[in-house]
Amino acid sequence: MDIDTTSVITRKLFPGRFYDAFFIGEYGRIEATRATRYNTCFSLIVIGIDGAGNGLPLESVEGLEFLKKLAGKVLASVRSCDIAGLSENGRIMVILPETDYFGALIASKKLSRALSPAAKEASRHKVLLSSATFQRDGRTFAEMAAAAEKRVIERADSLWEKLGCSGKLFWEIAGSLNGRNITGLNGASFDAGSGQDLSEFFIDQINELIIKEIARSPRRRGIMYYGTRNLSASLPVVKNLNTAGSTATKVFLVGDSEGSVWEIKNALPLFLDDPRLKETFFTFFLNEDTAYALICKENWGSTFSCFHTSDPVLVEGLITKFQNEYSLQEQLG
pTM of the prediction? Predict the structure, then answer.
């Protein structure tokens, strides 16, 4: 699809509100210049259909109607200062001025919820969202667009999409991840504990490394959830947090109360009396540079079936599902 074609299509949709590829490219270039000059940020959201390809010809009646539904939902959801339109390859693009990495993630979630009904109607097509932020993903608009395009394809290949996690509850997802023998770049299964190559202390070592990473960049925003059976002042993760110093990362410790743990530094305890937390331990960590999730289920004989991943799509999804399941504030950093 060329620029002239996108111009014809956008004129049929929402003239004056939904822009063609030429306008989107020029506006993005201006935003990149402004951000460079004033040392500010902006972000870009790309909405693709079926990952690697458009999934349907946008010039067809069916394709145009589907695109019109999506574009209408996008325009109704974005801010008045945001700019939405069509890229040369048929993706919907939304430029978000003065928006950082976490702001773009939150905006993506809002858009995803808005687009969900239209996506369900077109059940044979997946609507996939990704984002890119100035400087982190490129110093030009073209570099940012390329990074966001790549992430659309990566999202289509993620375990989150392949396992249909968006339609499942948190504990369903956790169970499916622990109940499979997963290998590959998206994540891996392993055993730990008595008689295994990795001892049960491996879980504590992982959390210690994450807290060291948090302390190494104290001004970097992020979020961490640590779930365990009982929260107490004697936990290694609590001791490590007490020596980490002040940080911008939000840390939440999840579990049942065992004595007073209100004096924990750098963390907020979330007391949950849930029997599933008695046998499942997890750590979720996300910032703009790092994503990691570890889920371990305790078996007989002091052994654990574990799964871990550095896939940001899966990590972000697990955090959001957990927050929704327990009616926590939806936040990512």
Answer: 0.88
